[in-house]
């Protein structure tokens, strides 16, 4: 198990481990009728189970298994006081059952009796000390001992080795072992291990709702589609599985499907009308609806049986923070910690909330959480990350605090500040916003560090940057090898979030936030953002256009990466439609209304049109735009073998080239190296579908065909079109630099060097091109800056770079010229031009005299 941290093992827990080491294992048998009722329990028939168990308990008052099943059924239906009464009767009749006492711990906690709940654990520990060597030999008891040990603060790794692993070795088919090990991984933040454990459990228990639910938990912070599949499987087996229903409700809240979430929570409450997390979920919905009275009433119900349950406020705060309302979320975590100062989940969440608000108190809390639970992965990751951040350089001005690696700060830190200042000037003016505090930007050269800072875990699910409000985190170009993206567009996009999140007090749906940022990218630079292309045309005119009121859900569990990108594009298209159709002032009014707590649909309707009419008009607008792509082409898709059930394609229009056939022809001709013939279908594709990006688009293929035919001018013309469309294509920028330098087209060489640097400023080649073109254009200052940055990147010919820099500095009478010419000669001692320059510098220095008063005489 991938736990990280120091060993913490209490005396009580240690006794359990010692007792476990002495046990030999055996499998216990259960009565057939009891098994039948337990199967009913696993299917969610809790009320029936309670009745049957209650009857059996009367007939068999000393049956521990029937008594436990009765208590579990009462807890599952929210009859906590009844469960308490049965627990106390059972405890009076059983002086040695650790399973009963472990269940008693849960029952007492559910009734708010923390002291007696703790006493149950101490009794288990005492029993283990006295009788562990001979009384608790079976695997089920070992698992119970392990769970108790964890609650007592035992070292998770030793619990795994001395309890769970031993139980699994004795009985590989014991269900409890899989559930205990999987939940331990969930609790400590090791989702990958949890997923593997529950998946292994499902191989043995494919019809187990708890096992499917465990797998859903493991996927919840990553693959939402897999999570939903697991939840569907759990609820198909057990329609009354309250934890599964509540996790589904969480997902719906995240996707802003609030009414469906409410109905799902109501389903859970129909099973257990007092479930704390169900009422906490209802409190979240009320809070998001700006209904303070309802929020308080729901929270109170969540605390009805346990008034100081920290999990209720922790849950409410966590969900608010996931809505980017970190200040409110932090307040709830503080309440949770007042109830239980040792409640580590609240401490870690509060730490992350504060760090996302730019408050350094968060780091102190990370250390506290790590000290209290050395095996919590999130706390460990954050504590480790702080040491990395201490090595970063910090660049500041009046409005920004930029943290990045020292080398990257030297190379392009000045460009980062310049871009951010430009974004602030333009966007604050456009949206009439005055930011309340400086914005912190953190740029990470290591993707795992970005993941930890952003998500608490080292995984990075495709994000280039994330804005929390006053804090932005971003991946540096160093982390994007093979998946290059324009860092300038990324920072512009994220800073736009800073503006809109403040305008709305962080109360805006994700689709609108992302849509504005993508839209503003394109307003700043026509090559940034996204445009209608062939794939999007197909999606808009097909079944992938999402209703405006449901757009946020498109981000949550997209069917593919393409569908996620389409969600960004459609959101930006909605923003474009709203601004173009109704103007910037009504659009700003929508944002201000959101800040007052107005529902997004109501805010839009107030300043535009009724939602149904707006959605219909937008769909027409989007489809009209889609049909403008390739209007002279036939877009009938060819039938694929084996897909006879596909919808019948439209009849092929007469005298029209088919888009898909042109793509096929061009690809086949390129594979066959028939460069001349390939030009015709490629040119036709370009003429009809000018918005093409990516490595295999028609422009790139046509440019390659021209190159193979030696048609350099044509190749350059096509690549120039690519450069004006795709802001990320560094291969095109590099080829254009090469062609421009050969033809001494210095303006074009400089332009493409700058385009390259906007994607990757951490390689030497574009700086060399920029320096040479600047020299040729008599721009000495730019040339000097470019040569200096080139030398920070270990260039292939450092002697040449030092010499060119020395020559420029000498022309400006900068004394640093001598140091660079010496560096050139250190690299290449026989460098004649450098030798001559050094002699010239020395002659001029020797001919300059300084009088005692400090006034320099002219050279003699």
Describe it.
With 860 residues, the chain is mainly alpha-helical. It has a 5-stranded mixed β-sheet. A two-stranded parallel sheet has the order 6-7. Helix 1 (11-21) packs antiparallel against helix 8, helix 20 packs antiparallel against helix 21 (361-372) and helix 37 (730-742) packs parallel to helix 39. The chain is globular, with a radius of gyration of 33 Å.
Task: Give the C-alpha Rg.
Answer: 33 Å
Largest sheet: 5 strands, mixed
Q: Class of the domain at 393-621 in CATH? A: Mainly Alpha
Q: How much of the polypeptide forms β-strand, as a percent range?
A: under 5%
The helix/strand class is mainly alpha
Could you outline the blueprint of secondary structure elements for this entry?
Blueprint: H1 11-21, H2 32-42, H3 46-59, H4 64-76, H5 80-93, H6 98-110, H7 114-131, H8 139-151, H9 156-170, H10 175-187, H11 191-204, H12 209-219, H13 224-237, H14 242-254, H15 258-271, H16 276-288, H17 292-302, H18 310-322, H19 326-339, H20 344-356, H21 361-372, H22 377-390, E1 393-396, E2 400-404, H23 406-431, E3 439-444, H24 447-455, E4 465-467, E5 471-475, H25 487-503, H26 510-524, H27 534-541, H28 553-556, H29 561-582, H30 584-595, H31 600-607, H32 611-627, E6 633-634, E7 657-658, H33 659-671, H34 675-688, H35 698-708, H36 712-723, H37 730-742, H38 746-757, H39 765-776, H40 780-791, H41 798-811, H42 816-827, H43 832-846
Parallel strand pairs: 2-3, 3-5, 6-7
Antiparallel strand pairs: 1-2, 4-5
Brief account:
This protein has 860 residues and is mostly helical.
Question: Which key terms come to mind for this protein?
Answer:
860 residues, globular, 66% helix, mainly alpha, 43 helices, disordered N terminus, Serine Threonine Protein Phosphatase 5, Tetratricopeptide repeat, two-stranded parallel ribbon, five-stranded mixed beta sheet, Neutral Protease, domain 2
């Amino acid at each position: 198990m991938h736990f990280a941290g120091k060993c913490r093992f209490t005396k009580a827990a240690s006794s359990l481990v010692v007792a476990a080491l002495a046990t030999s294992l055996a499998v216990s048998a259960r009565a057939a009728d009891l098994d039948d009722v337990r199967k009913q329990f696993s299917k969610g028939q809790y009320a029936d189970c309670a009745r049957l168990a209650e009857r059996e308990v009367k007939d068999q008052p000393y049956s521990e298994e029937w008594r436990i099943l009765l208590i579990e059924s009462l807890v599952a239906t929210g009859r906590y006081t009844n469960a308490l009464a049965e627990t106390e009767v059972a405890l009076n009749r059983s002086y040695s059952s650790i399973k009963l006492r472990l269940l008693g711990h849960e029952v007492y906690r559910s009734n708010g009796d923390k002291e007696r709940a703790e006493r149950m654990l101490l009794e288990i520990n005492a029993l283990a000390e006295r009788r562990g060597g001979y009384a608790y030999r079976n695997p089920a008891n070992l698992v119970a001992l392990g769970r108790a040990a964890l609650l007592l603060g035992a070292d998770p790794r030793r619990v795994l080795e001395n309890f769970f692993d031993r139980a699994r070795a004795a009985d590989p088919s014991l269900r409890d072992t899989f559930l205990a090990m999987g939940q331990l991984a969930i609790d400590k933040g090791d989702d990958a291990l949890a997923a593997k454990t529950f998946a292994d459990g499902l191989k043995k228990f494919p019809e187990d709702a708890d096992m499917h639910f465990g797998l859903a938990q493991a996927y919840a912070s990553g693959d939402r589609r897999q999570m939903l599949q697991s939840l569907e499987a759990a609820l198909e087996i057990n329609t009354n599985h309250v934890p599964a229903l509540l996790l589904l409700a969480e997902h719906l809240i995240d996707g802003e499907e609030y009414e469906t979430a409410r109905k799902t929570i109501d389903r859970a409450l129909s099973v257990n009308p007092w479930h704390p997390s169900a009422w906490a979920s209802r409190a979240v919905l009320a809070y998001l609806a700006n209904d303070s009275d309802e929020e308080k009433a729901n929270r109170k119900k969540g605390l009805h049986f346990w008034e100081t349950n920290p999990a209720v406020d922790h849950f409410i705060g966590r969900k608010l923070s996931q809505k980017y309302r970190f200040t409110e979320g932090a307040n709830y975590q503080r309440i949770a910690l007042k109830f239980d100062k040792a409640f580590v989940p609240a401490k870690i969440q509060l730490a992350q909330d504060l760090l996302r608000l730019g408050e350094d108190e968060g780091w102190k809390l990370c250390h506290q959480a790590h000290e209290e639970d050395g095996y919590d992965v999130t706390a460990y990751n954050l504590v480790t990350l702080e040491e990395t951040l201490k090595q970063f350089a910090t660049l500041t001005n009046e409005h920004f605090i930029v943290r990045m690696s020292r080398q990257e700060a030297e190379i392009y830190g000045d460009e980062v500040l310049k871009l951010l200042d430009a974004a602030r000037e333009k966007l604050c003016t456009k949206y009439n916003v005055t930011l309340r505090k400086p914005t912190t930007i953190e740029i990470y050269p290591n993707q795992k560090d970005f993941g930890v800072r952003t998500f608490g875990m080292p995984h990075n699910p495709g994000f280039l940057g994330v804005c929390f409000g006053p804090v932005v985190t971003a991946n540096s170009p160093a982390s994007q090898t093979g998946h290059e993206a324009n860092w300038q567009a990324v920072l512009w996009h994220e800073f736009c979030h800073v503006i809109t999140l403040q305008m709305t007090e962080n109360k805006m749906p994700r689709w609108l936030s992302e849509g504005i940022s993508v839209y503003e990218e394109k307003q700043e630079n026509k090559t940034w953002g996204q445009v209608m292309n062939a794939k999007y045309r197909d999606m808009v005119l097909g079944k992938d256009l999402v209703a405006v009121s449901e757009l946020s859900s498109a981000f949550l569990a997209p069917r593919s990466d393409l569908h996620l990108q389409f969600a960004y594009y459609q959101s930006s298209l909605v923003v474009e439609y709203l601004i173009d159709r109704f103007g910037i002032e009504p659009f700003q009014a929508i944002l201000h209304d959101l800040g007052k707590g107005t529902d997004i649909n109501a805010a839009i309707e107030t300043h535009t049109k009724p939602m149904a009419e707006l959605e219909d008009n937008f769909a027409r607008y989007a489809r009209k735009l889609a049909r403008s792509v390739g209007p002279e082409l036939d877009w009938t898709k060819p039938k694929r073998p084996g897909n006879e059930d596909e919808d019948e394609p439209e009849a092929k229009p007469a005298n029209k080239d088919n888009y898909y056939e042109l793509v096929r022809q061009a690809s086949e001709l390129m594979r066959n190296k028939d460069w001349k013939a390939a030009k015709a279908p490629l040119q036709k594709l370009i003429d009809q579908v000018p918005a093409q990006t990516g490595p295999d688009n028609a422009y790139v293929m046509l440019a390659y065909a021209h190159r193979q035919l030696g048609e350099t001018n044509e190749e350059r013309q096509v690549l120039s079109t690519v450069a004006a469309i795709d802001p990320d294509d560094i291969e095109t920028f590099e080829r254009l630099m090469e062609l421009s330098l050969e033809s001494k087209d210095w303006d074009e060489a400089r332009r493409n060097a700058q385009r390259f640097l906007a994607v990757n400023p951490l390689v030497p080649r574009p700086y060399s091109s920029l320096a040479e073109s600047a020299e040729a254009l008599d721009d000495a200052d730019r040339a000097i800056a470019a040569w200096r940055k080139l030398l920070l990147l270990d260039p292939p010919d450092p002697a040449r770079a030092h010499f060119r820099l020395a020559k420029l500095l000498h022309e400006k009478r900068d004394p640093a010229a001598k140091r660079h010419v010496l560096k050139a000669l250190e690299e290449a001692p026989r460098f004649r031009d450098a030798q001559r320059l050094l002699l010239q510098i020395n002659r001029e220095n020797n001919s300059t005299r300084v009088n005692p008063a400090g006034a320099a005489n002219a050279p003699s």
